[in-house]
Specification:
Tfp pilus assembly protein PilX, 44 strands, 9-stranded antiparallel beta sheet, 4 domains, 7 helices, single chain, alpha/beta
């Protein structure tokens, strides 16, 4: 009995001891679990803190921001006068290839749209990918381009010192982004690559390569690591705005110059002032971006080169020559203002092909135009051709060995069949008075010209009544030609003598120059390009600059017809070996680019045309017969909207009275800087990824371990 009692007591003591140990263990587990939960909370708090840092850096590396007064100010802006070489060197240093002469390799990323907010195409884009850890020099573009206002996104204690030198800013950026370890946070934000979209447009990509946080509480510790998602990078662009990136660019647009009615703008459109409609109703068709700066006064002499204009009455457009349409009251956001104005345009009948909100902006920055031809004059003197003061014009012909224009057009490929050999002929014309008549063809003219033409050089046809004359031809002063090797030959007697010059494509004269190409086949009055023998051979890139203006007597077409913006021609899009390599720039820094009274119905130009202090207009636009449309595949840039015809509105019906309508379509190759001695002003602007889904904070987080911290 005693043994049984003792055994029972021992059993109870064991159970009690086990129960006590279990209670202590449960209490200990509860303490540990609480510590772990607190550590997890601390780790996630550090994730939030790190996200905030990423947002700060992304905001700093954005085009614009809002200052303390609520005013939008630039965050990325290179100082006026910054050379293209400085930006090129910053770009190479950013990707760690500063000492490499040519680090650029092709990329296909920009041959197609990346996403809805980043759809612009650059088939010839190249890139430099960062493959090593960044150095101090990698941050050169940040030190050079980030404005002092941008640093106000940070608390005062975290900003660089006011007035910091470039060297100090380089160190500051390196300390902010490269392998940062601060308490329980570690991160590394690195340059990823630079994409050279054009010769003067660079896109800089950054992204996180390492993100780690730690949370501690008592004995508890938790670790988390972040990995960049496929949208987890950020880019900003530094670029020189090129007016030729638009199918139509109008600098100064007063009401006297008219407005749009039924125009087809087949590409991007930009104006430094406000869009004007001819009437309160219209059927304008915008097939690209529509952007305006809304300037009411341009920067004056002595103003910083990259200064914006005065915008006295805010964003808007003229829905009728003098009827200003403004955004609804109460709208403060620029994007919302632009959306509201687009809606009002639509209500007037305007058509828009794009549905991307960012493609419509009425709050753009002013883009200046070049007002001199100093660069073109210098280039012509060094590898080009310069007209003497008594020389009046230039005739351009893609021709066979005898100088005859090309004759066979392949409609299935939209190009002219070139003979072997084919040359580019440049015929410099003597004084305008040294002329005769071309008895091989006829051109249609107005009766006023017909009446003053020699009797044996004109005819009239009936049903309908039309007036025809033998065209005048001015004698050649000099004649040159070149082939695919670009070696320039001068005509000497009946032969050709090498000048020893590799022709750079630039032809300059300080005077007003008349430019012509071959006459049409069969005296055609249609828009059929197969009736318009080409002015330029497939290998020719030419810039014709007339210091006092240009006069166009004929069509000016290319042997390999460029594809229009919508690739509607047969054989388009043209890629690879089929892609056109020819290009024509017509530049007048003063005066107008004028379609003379001898241009025919459906006049056609394959060219980038700039009248930076004048207009692309039509001689006798208000007196000549109705002649269909003037067709441009390329770009038209003008100081003032050129007058091309007249129209009247009666009872809601528009009647055309004289001249031409416009059918302009963009040649997308112009975004690739294909023009020799292209006339642009080196004023750097910026862009960023805000219209896309890319964000530095697009990071996937997961639990990690102490070994990885």
């Amino acid at each position: 009995m005693i043994v049984v009692v003792l055994f029972t007591l021992l059993l109870l003591a064991g159970i009690l001891a086990a129960t006590m140990r279990l209670g202590l263990g449960s209490r200990q587990n509860t303490v540990d679990q609480a510590a772990i939960l607190k550590a997890q909370y601390a780790a996630e708090s550090n994730v939030t803190l790190l996200r905030s840092k990423l947002r700060d850096y992304q905001d700093i590396l954005s085009s614009n921001g809002i200052n303390a007064s609520g005013v939008q100010v630039p965050y990325l802006l290179l100082p006026a006068g910054t050379s293209a070489d400085v930006v090129k060197n910053d770009a190479k240093a950013f990707c760690g290839k500063g000492s490499v002469a040519d680090p650029w390799v092709p990329t296909s990323d920009f041959a197609t749209a990346r996403e809805a907010g980043d759809a612009e195409l650059f088939p010839s884009a190249t890139q430099c990918v960062a493959t090593s850890a960044p150095t101090l020099d990698s941050y050169g573009i940040l030190a050079d381009a980030v404005t002092s206002a941008a640093y106000n996104e940070l608390p005062p204690s975290e900003r660089p010192a006011a007035g910091s030198t470039r060297a100090a800013l380089l160190s500051w950026w390196q300390n902010q982004l490269s392998n940062v370890s601060s308490g329980n946070i570690k991160y590394d934000i690195r340059p990823l690559r630079v994409v050279k979209l054009t010769d003067n447009r660079y896109r800089f990509y950054l992204g996180v390569t390492n993100l780690d946080v730690k949370g501690s509480s008592g004995t508890g510790q938790r670790y988390m690591a972040g990995t960049r998602s496929d949208k987890g990078d950020w880019w900003f662009e530094i670029k020189v705005p090129n007016p030729f990136d638009n199918v139509l660019f109008i600098n100064n647009w007063p009401s006297a110059d008219g407005g749009f009615y039924n125009d087809v703008i087949d590409g991007d459109f930009f104006t430094n002032q406000k869009v004007r409609m001819l009437f309160g109703i219209n059927s304008v068709n915008f097939r690209g971006k529509l952007r305006s700066a809304g300037c009411t006064a341009f920067p004056g002499a002595g103003t910083l080169q990259n200064a914006d204009c005065t915008k006295g009455d805010g964003p808007g457009f003229y829905g009728g020559l003098n009827t200003l349409i403004s955004p609804d009251a109460g709208i403060t956001d620029n994007a919302a203002k632009s959306a509201n104005l687009k809606s009002k345009m639509t209500n007037q009948g305007t058509n828009f092909t794009s549905t991307v909100a960012g493609d419509f902006s009425f709050t753009e920055k002013y883009i200046p135009l070049p007002l001199t031809a100093n660069t073109q004059a210098a280039d012509a003197a060094n590898g080009g051709l310069t007209l003497a003061p008594n020389e009046s014009g230039v005739e351009l012909v893609a021709g066979d060995a005898s100088g005859n224009p090309l004759n066979n057009y392949d409609s299935s490929k939209s190009l002219w069949k070139e003979s072997n050999p084919t040359y580019q002929y440049i015929r410099i014309k003597g004084p305008a008075s040294s002329s005769s008549y071309d008895n091989s063809t006829w051109i249609e003219v107005d009766k006023s010209d017909y009446d003053n033409w020699p009797a044996d050089k004109k005819k009239m046809t009936n049903n309908p009544t039309m007036y025809w004359v033998r065209p005048k031809q001015v004698d050649n002063s000099r004649e040159f030609r070149f082939g695919p090797d670009k070696i320039l030959y001068a005509k000497s007697g009946s032969g050709w003598v090498s000048t020893g010059t590799t022709f750079n494509g630039v032809i300059y004269g300080s005077q007003n120059i008349t430019v012509s190409g071959p006459m049409r086949k069969d005296s055609s009055l249609t828009a059929d390009v197969s009736k318009m023998p080409p002015a330029l051979a497939s290998f020719a890139k030419l810039n014709i600059t007339g210091g006092a203006g240009l006069r166009l007597d004929t069509d000016l077409t290319l042997s390999n017809t460029p594809c229009d913006n919508g690739n509607t021609q047969q054989g388009c899009p043209k890629t690879g070996d089929a892609k056109p390599q020819n290009a024509l720039c017509l530049f007048a820094p003063a005066g107008d680019v004028v379609m003379t009274r001898y241009t025919q119905d459906e006049a056609t130009y394959h060219a980038a045309i700039m009248a930076s202090n004048g207009a692309f207009n039509v001689e006798n636009y208000d007196k000549r017969r109705v002649q269909g449309s003037r067709h441009v595949i390329g770009s038209v840039v003008e100081n003032r909207y050129g007058l091309n015809g007249t129209a009247s509105l009666n009872n809601g019906q528009v009647t055309f009275g004289s001249g031409y309508g416009d059918q302009f379509s963009f040649d997308n190759r112009l975004r690739e800087d294909i023009l020799p001695s292209s006339p642009i002003v080196t004023v750097w602007q910026s862009a960023d990824a805000s219209s896309t889904q890319k964000r530095l904070t697009n990071v996937v987080w997961q639990q990690s371990t102490a070994d990885n911290f």
